[in-house]
Design goal:
Blueprint (H helix, E strand, L loop, with lengths): L12 H12 L3 H4 L1 H8 L2 H28 L6 H9 L1 H32 L8 E5 L10 E4 H18 L2 H28 L17 H14 L1
Antiparallel strand pairs: 1-2
Helix pairs in contact: 1-8, 3-9, 4-9, 5-6, 6-7
């Protein structure tokens, strides 16, 4: 008999929940608030952007829930596009995700890890090698930093984790998600219990793009998060 198509059903509820939590609480929340404030200019507007972004994400989540229940196959969006528009569009989407979307998002998250760690280990921001070709920012030479090599190592390490199987990867995800949630709870507790906050910070403003342009630019950042 031919083997049925589908993913291996070896993830337990804790592993599955940790994957969802890990996807929702990603690098974005640590990277985008500064850019959002620069676009809208005030804390009140930042909160509004988060609320609108959360509602849009909820609409998307409910849509995916309906699609997943109607088409319970492995492949996600590939399956939905294949069934809706034909195999060519599913094929193009799958390869676009492989070569552009997923590889780019993985690189972004690894870079975010490097940026944050460089606050504690400044030597990671040092230049290891310079490629004297106009392929860097602004058409200048490309600088290879120590932190970039660390980011590559993180990606390879996580790829190795997944090589050992879905169950092993799920266990690692549980540990990483527990550490992430624990640290976030600690930050909140320390912030609430420090006694050094002032309500004036909530009313502060900063020069920003503002208007519809700033709002939607900040919304893009919120949706990334």
């Amino acid at each position: 008999m031919p083997e049925a198509r589908g993913l291996k059903r070896v993830l337990g509820p804790w592993s599955a929940a940790s994957i969802v939590v890990g996807t929702i609480i990603g690098s974005g929340i640590f990277l985008v608030p500064k850019a959002m404030v620069q676009q809208v200019g005030s804390v009140d507007m930042v909160f509004l952007v988060w609320i609108v972004g959360g509602l849009l994400s909820l609409f998307g989540a409910l849509s995916y829930a309906e699609l997943g229940a109607a088409l319970p196959e492995a492949g996600g969006e590939y399956v939905y596009l294949r069934e809706a528009y034909g195999p060519m569009w599913g094929f193009l989407y799958g390869w676009t995700q492989t070569w552009v979307a997923k590889s780019g998002s993985i690189a972004t998250m690894a870079t975010g890890f490097f940026y944050y760690l460089a606050n504690f280990r400044p030597e990671l921001d040092g230049v290891l090698y310079v490629i004297r070709l106009p392929i860097g920012p602004g058409g200048g030479p490309l600088e290879i930093r120590y932190g970039q090599l660390l980011a590559v190592g993180v990606i390879l390490g996580l790829a190795l984790v997944n090589y050992f199987g879905v169950r092993f990867g799920g266990g690692v995800q549980v540990l990483v998600t527990a550490a992430k949630v624990g640290l976030l709870v600690a930050i909140i507790a320390i912030g609430l219990g420090s006694g050094h906050a002032t309500a004036a910070n909530l009313a502060s403003t900063t020069p920003a793009v503002g208007g519809f342009t700033g709002f939607f630019a900040a919304l893009v950042a919120a949706l990334w998060a």
